[in-house]
Amino acid sequence: MSGAGLPGAPTGDEKRVVLHVDVDCFYAACERRRDPALRGKPVVVGMGYEAGAAHGAVATASYEAREHGVESAQPISQALEALPRAATAPADHDGPVGHYRPVDMAYYREVSDEIRAILHGIADVVREVSIDEAYLDVTDRVGWHSVEILARSLKRRIDEEVGVTASVGVGPNMSVAKVASDHDKPDGLVVVPPGEVREFLAPLPIDELHGVGPVTARELRAAGIETAGDLASADRGALVSRFGARGGTIHDHARGRDSRPVEPVGKPKSLSSESAFTEATDAFDAVCERLLRLAEEVTERAAARDALYKTIGIKVVRPPFDVNTRERSLSGPVADPDLVESVVLDLAEEFEGETVRKLGVRVSNLTFGERTQAPLDAWEGDGSAGAGVDADDGPIDGDDGSGQSTRDDERFGRDRATRVPRGQTSIVDFT
Q1: Beta partners for 170?
Q2: Angle at CA 318, nearest 5°, toward 315 and 319?
Q3: CATH of the domain spanning 27-105
Q4: Calpha distance 210→251 (Å, rounded)
Q5: What is the pLDDT of residue 325?
Q6: What confidence score (pLDDT) does residue 369 get?
Q7: In which order are the strands placed within the sheet that holds 99-102?
Q8: In the CATH scheme, what is the homologous superfamily, with its name and number, of domain 270-412?
Q9: Residue 99 pLDDT exceeds 60
Q10: Confidence of residue 345 (pLDDT cuts 50, 70, 90)
């Protein structure tokens, strides 16, 4: 947006830069990723639906399906009346047909995890509000002069690396960013700087405001309040009297005000980082180098959060979107970057010679704020403290007598110069 506008946000918001990321028709997008032949076609994903059946309800309808009257929460039987099933449509049917799929939450969560890794890679503060949307506070990473470049890059990464399309809204607070991301769907990008908030919001129908549902919208319209501008000009006291505290909240939102900080919902269950190659590669040295970089990023983030981890894993994506995950679990939580690197490279050996387009590293089963950790001779599956594993109270390989480890890479079966596995078995037998 451009041009001067009325003051749109309180002074404290002017420096905040908040993104709202929302994947367009997420379930349908996942089904199209799995079956590219569905791209551009009406797709309906049903809850409680089974292939060939007429029961259940619509969980997500693609924009192409919506054009024919299919909507979320609609009974599948009603959707079929508007959009017959492609697989069973009569041969002489010359109208539009839909492609119906049952909900596959396990697969959708895998796709969501890939998106989440990208989001956490570009923002230190991420509030995940559902499987397909999140708020990011990027105030410390980018200013208003360059946030559009960041947002476009984020959209491109989600498209190229994950294979789904996201709409992104940028504003000085969560409420404005949410409205912005909804404003130009699908595949939208709307940036609303602080000075343009009121101008942007004023003409919008009231039900496009964050926090105004259908019932509240009907009551406001009955009182002659049709737009966000009308709501912003309304008597605040009257709104609070009619709607309680929520009346004050929606009045603030209509004026572009929202003091809520972007905060994570609870502590994370895992920390991960992912990266895609510009071109898919079968060069194992490049794969290992990228995995080590990702491992370093993840362990640094864990250390910053005072987090210990019990499970270490990798993700290897082969073209086009063949996702493979491998992990190893420990008997207790640790904070050991060297061990993470070792395990990551051991897990990667299975994929030597494979063509890879994307990689990820994750640590999970997290605990926070604990200063003690399981001894290094107590991994599951290891029968003794002398099985090539360092005991807490004894010298480690590479100890030069000073009490400081020289981080002898030989004990990991690695070459210090290349950090590529030599083919030796791991020093630790994980389950």
Answers
A1: 19, 191
A2: 140
A3: 3.40.1170.60
A4: 11
A5: 93
A6: 65
A7: 57-61, 43-47, 99-102
A8: DNA polymerase, Y-family, little finger domain (3.30.1490.100)
A9: yes
A10: very high
> Rounded to an integer, what distance in angstroms lies between the CA atom of residue 369 and that of residue 350?
34
- Exactly one of 64, 133, 196, 199 is catalytic; which is it? 133
Residues in Cβ contact with 212 at an 8 Å cutoff, skipping those fewer than 6 apart: 206, 220, 250, 253
What letter does residue 157 receive in the DSSP assignment?
Answer: H
pLDDT at 416: 29
Contacts of 354 (CB under 8 A, 6+ apart): 282, 316, 318
Give the angle subtended at the CA of 332 by the CAs of 329 and 333, to the nearest 5°: 90
Q: Is the backbone of residue 256 left (phi > 0), alpha (psi -120 to 50) or beta?
A: left
Find the helix packing angle between 214-222 and 236-243, rounded to 10°.
130
Q: What is the CA angle 59-265-180, rounded to 5? A: 60
- Render pLDDT for 356-408 as a digit per residue (tens, 0 to 9): 999 999 999 999 864 434 433 333 333 332 222 222 222 222 333 333 332 22
- Grade residue 92 by pLDDT with cuts at 50, 70 and 90: confident
How confident is the model at residue 94, as a pLDDT? Answer: 77
Cβ atoms of 361 and 314 within 8 Å: the answer is: yes
Looking at 2.40.30.170, 3.30.70.270, 3.40.50.720, 2.40.50.100, the CATH number of the domain 11-25+108-254 comes to: 3.30.70.270
Domain residues of the chain, as ranges? 11-25+108-254, 27-105, 270-412
Residue 133 appears among annotated catalytic residues: yes
Residue for token pair 């010298």: 395
Please return the burial class of 241, using the count of CB atoms within 10 Å of its CB with bins 0-12, 13-18 and 19+.
exposed
Dist. CA 98–CA 64, nearest whole Å: 9
